[in-house]
Design brief:
mainly alpha, 153 residues, single chain, 85% helix
Length: 153
């Protein structure tokens, strides 16, 4: 976590010097910016480990995908909990982990439903539909994480 914080502060200092107006806007919406960065890091973790497990090691695709998902899930949970929403409480961590996993299951089902709706019913191109669904689910996830799972009392 310290490495992530150091990288974040280095980027923040560079950004504030070279783009002060944009930095001011992002600083007011810090948790949203961190949410996007943490989500991107989790997505990158998923892709990198999928490539390592299946592409380099040669493990079966389903096993590799599952293992990469688990690692990305853990990266995402830790970054969102401790870095994005600065929720350091250890008292509720297992409950939060359960809610986070349950929310991921809901998101998976919403993704499938919305993709079916957009592609099959509304005839939207599948890649554009997935981008729209990702945006919708990102807003949904931010609200759930901020006000339910990682809320600070």
């Amino acid at each position: 976590m310290n490495a992530i914080n150091r990288l974040y502060f280095r980027f923040r200092n560079f950004f504030s010097r070279h783009f002060p107006r944009l930095y001011s806007l992002c600083d007011r919406r810090k948790s949203v910016v961190k949410f996007v960065i943490a989500g991107s890091m989790a997505g990158l973790t998923d892709l990198v480990f999928l490539f390592i497990f299946h592409g380099l090691i040669g493990w079966p695709i389903v096993f590799s995908t599952s293992l990469a998902f688990i690692l990305a899930f853990l990266v995402s949970f830790n970054l969102q909990k401790f870095w994005t929403f600065r929720n350091y409480s250890q008292r509720r961590v297992f409950g939060q982990l359960f809610l986070y996993l349950f929310n991921a299951f809901i998101g998976l089902n919403l993704n499938g439903f919305l993709m079916h709706l957009f592609v099959n019913e509304l005839n939207i191109w599948y890649l554009l539909a997935q981008m729209a669904v990702n945006l919708i689910l990102s807003v949904y996830n931010y609200i759930i994480y901020r006000f339910l799972i990682f809320r600070n009392k």
